[in-house]
């Protein structure tokens, strides 16, 4: 009997021990669950789909070129090409040799684990090519830039045979290497999925970006003004409006210093009259006032260092005293890690621009276009696309006394009545893809759930095709 009772006691304590372990595990999980978001929704860990099982046709290495947003679009394209060709994608390499000379790697800007895991049902992504395919073991991969604006036929018929032969292909340029239009719906939707779900900034960037956004929203609605009056843009475009003679010469020398900037001799006035120059800060001040923004408007300058510094911002700041930048909102210690990392700084501006109440770009570069696309995807947040060609005419007429202020303001408003972003299809221009609407500015295939989006986009906004 004693042996039996001893056995019962042992089982009893064993059950208690197991129960305690289970309770402790549950408690730990409850404690470590993410806190509630401000809207009351729990941030649960993402649930990823099972990995896709396929026979890989080879490894695709890519070296992205350009600034942050040009590289971002390229990453979306390269994932899509890897999926189309059944390839294994190597985590993209980022540009370190452009004007910005940012030494950041992919994992310094983007959440690499989330990127790999969230796309595992579409494409296999690895951090490096297996050793057997390295030069150390005598393997030579094929290196080439794919043809710009190419469709699936080009990649299937010309690139896939090369991969089957060489096993490793290195695309050394990735900007605009996939067509805007004419691709299957599933590939277009994959481009969007990468852009809006798979690409996340690192927790460090995300946390600081959210802090910035919260600080701005606490002070009320705000406009994100993407003021592209920066040295690199002015030198590249040849636009010297508002510059002194010695500044114009400095910009010209810089343009000649970069051999891959093809245009060298540029007449600034001609380019400006064609609407191909970013607005100056003074022009931006007049336009914002004409559009009805008042002195109490909170304006966030989403840009790098403005050429000419605070001197060049004087008129804009006089018209809008509540101008802020990340450098003025955050402590120096907050930004210390990001100094000399222009792409990481640009990521903060990107986050704030996407979250702003109104977004106004003064030039239609890569950041402006990708932010526009994100804002379309986020239920068409207010974005005003400026007609620079018409604006410089109106500004010049006002400044030379031909147009009184009321006439100028009415003209600016009239020009922009239909230039607030709304549902519409991309413009298709046969054989001139560079002149088409850019996919990432208006991914209309991803903005409604139905295959046929005519009702959502509106019959009057149907795709315009120009021969």
TrEMBL record:
<dbReference type="GO" id="GO:0016757">
    <property type="term" value="F:glycosyltransferase activity"/>
</dbReference>
<feature type="transmembrane region" description="Helical">
    <location>
        <begin position="12"/>
        <end position="31"/>
    </location>
</feature>
<keyword id="KW-0119">Carbohydrate metabolism</keyword>
<keyword id="KW-0328">Glycosyltransferase</keyword>
<dbReference type="GO" id="GO:0006004">
    <property type="term" value="P:fucose metabolic process"/>
</dbReference>
<comment type="pathway">
    <text>Glycan metabolism.</text>
</comment>
<protein>
    <recommendedName>
        <fullName>O-fucosyltransferase family protein</fullName>
    </recommendedName>
</protein>
<keyword id="KW-0735">Signal-anchor</keyword>
<comment type="similarity">
    <text>Belongs to the glycosyltransferase GT106 family.</text>
</comment>
<dbReference type="Pfam" id="PF10250">
    <property type="entry name" value="O-FucT"/>
</dbReference>
<dbReference type="GO" id="GO:0016020">
    <property type="term" value="C:membrane"/>
</dbReference>
<keyword id="KW-0812">Transmembrane</keyword>
<keyword id="KW-1133">Transmembrane helix</keyword>
<keyword id="KW-0808">Transferase</keyword>
<dbReference type="InterPro" id="IPR019378">
    <property type="entry name" value="GDP-Fuc_O-FucTrfase"/>
</dbReference>
<dbReference type="GO" id="GO:0009507">
    <property type="term" value="C:chloroplast"/>
</dbReference>
<keyword id="KW-0325">Glycoprotein</keyword>
<keyword id="KW-0472">Membrane</keyword>
<dbReference type="InterPro" id="IPR024709">
    <property type="entry name" value="FucosylTrfase_pln"/>
</dbReference>
<keyword id="KW-0294">Fucose metabolism</keyword>
